[in-house]
Every structure is written in structure tokens, then in C-alpha cells.
Design brief:
The protein is an alpha/beta fold and 260 residues long. The protein is built from ten helices and seven strands. It is globular, with a radius of gyration of 17 Å.
């Protein structure tokens, strides 16, 4: 039975499907650590391997990591002129999404959604975006439309987005924590975050991985992911969740748990 004082915890690992090392790190962080949820990037070859292994981890919630930056598109670039550059690629960071056209964002987001269905044979548990690109209002419009089509939650990437999602009738968490990152992806930081979790549903974002050559050559955030994996599977971190009586859930179970 859920009470108003219950603290539900989602620990979501971003970038599943980007490289095989990320895949294995996320699966290890779920099997032996705190990760309850992941979001998959579907335009990389490693997404096929990730999808093929999901049956080994039935308790891992898996959503769609809509990617409009830093990687390949699912659709041909000539169908996405406002999103791609002269080389046919997405911009490295969301700042490069200068004037995205809503119709093009929706086309690509829906193509990625369809690719997720093709790979996994199931609906994603929720939607979020690579590099938080849905902090851009046009991208947020597209994710809201996609979420409404399939009755899915969307990541609460900022207080303003949380309020907008709730106005639009789209489920989202009460709190979103992105502080476990970079130099702050340490055990003491994570313990502090866990100790400060309030009643409601909280998502903590993370990026665990076994660092492979592809990750090293394509990402500016690579070596740090090994440290995240070590912290997320630390006995001290696991013990903290238990001692604090936090309830691990994923996006597919959080609202069900909260309604009991």
C-alpha cells in the first residue's frame, strides 16, 4: 500500500543502444546495482544487441531516448533539413537546433518510436531526449504529441517542463535529478542525493558503461561512465536505498505503485 510519505525512486540510465559497452554497463548496473530504468537510442547498430538482450532483464523498464543531436538520424537527412547540417548529420549539441520545424521533429521522433517497436516488440515505458533537447519548446511540443498518441510519461527535464507536461495531461515525475554526472558522479554525491529524496516520484539520471573504443572515439563523456558504474553497483549505495526505505520503480510501474 502506498502512502503520501512514500518515496518512489527511478534510476534511469541514458544511452542504451549506443555502444555494446554502454549496453553491458547498463545491464550490469541493473542486475547488480541501482538502475531500474533505461532509455534506448535506436539509430545505432548496438541497439539491435541491446534489444536482443532485454529478455534477460524483465524488471528493467526501457523507454525511448529521442535523439536529435550528436548522432545519426533514422530518416534520410533530406527529409530533415531544419535538423541536419550540410554533412547530413544532427548538430553535436542542442544549441545547434536553431530553428527546428515541428513537423520534421515529429517525423523523426515517430520514426525512432517505430524503430523502437520494431527492435523490441513492445511500447517504451516513457520518453526522454538526448542532451535534454526537449528543453527546446518545439522539441517539447513533439514529445508531448508522441506521448499523447501512446499515453506515455515524459521526463521532467526542468521545473518549467514539469509544469507544462502536467498542464497538457502528460504524466511526469515530481522530481528530476541530473547532479550525478561528471566530477559529481561520486559515491558521496549519490548518498547525499538519496538522503534528500522527498515524498513522490523522483528520477535520477545516470550514464554507466563499460568503456569501449567506439564510446571513446564518439563521445566527450566516456571514461567517466566507468566510475558511474562502480558507484551505482556499490554495496554502500544499495544499502542506502534500503536504509532510507526508498521504493525502486521504473516509469512503467511508478504510477501503478503510487495508486495502490
Amino acid at each position: 500500500m502506498t502512502r503520501s510519505t512514500d518515496r518512489l525512486l527511478i534510476v534511469n540510465a541514458d544511452d542504451l543502444g549506443r555502444t555494446t559497452g554502454i549496453n553491458s554497463g547498463i545491464f550490469e548496473a541493473h542486475l547488480n546495482g541501482l538502475v531500474t530504468s533505461a532509455t534506448m537510442m535506436v539509430a545505432y547498430p548496438a541497439a539491435e544487441e541491446a534489444a536482443a538482450r532485454l529478455g534477460e532483464f524483465p524488471s528493467l523498464g526501457v523507454g525511448l531516448h529521442v535523439a536529435l543531436t550528436g548522432g545519426p538520424s533514422v530518416l534520410p537527412a533530406d527529409r530533415l533539413p531544419s535538423l541536419t547540417d550540410a554533412s547530413g548529420g544532427f548538430p553535436a549539441k542542442p544549441e545547434g537546433l536553431v530553428e527546428p520545424v515541428l513537423e520534421e521533429v515529429l517525423l523523426e521522433a515517430r520514426a525512432q518510436f517505430d524503430r523502437f517497436l520494431e527492435l523490441t516488440g513492445r511500447l517504451p515505458t516513457h520518453l526522454d531526449s538526448h542532451h535534454h533537447s526537449h528543453r527546446h519548446p518545439v522539441v517539447c511540443d513533439a514529445l508531448i504529441a508522441l506521448a499523447r498518441d501512446h499515453d506515455l510519461p515524459v521526463r521532467n527535464a526542468s521545473p518549467g517542463i514539469r509544469e507544462r507536461l502536467r498542464r497538457e495531461g502528460v504524466a511526469t515525475t515530481d522530481f528530476f535529478v541530473e547532479d550525478f554526472f561528471g566530477n559529481d558522479a561520486r559515491l558521496d554525491t549519490l548518498i547525499e542525493i538519496l538522503g534528500g529524496i522527498r515524498p513522490g516520484i523522483t528520477e535520477i539520471m545516470c550514464h554507466p558503461a563499460h568503456v569501449d573504443d567506439e564510446l571513446l572515439s564518439t563521445s566527450s563523456y566516456a571514461a567517466e561512465r566507468k566510475g558511474e558504474l562502480e558507484v551505482l553497483t556499490s554495496p554502500d549505495a544499495l544499502r542506502a536505498v534500503q536504509d532510507l526505505a526508498l521504493r525502486p520503480v521504473h516509469f512503467g510501474t511508478a504510477w501503478e505503485a503510487g495508486s495502490r
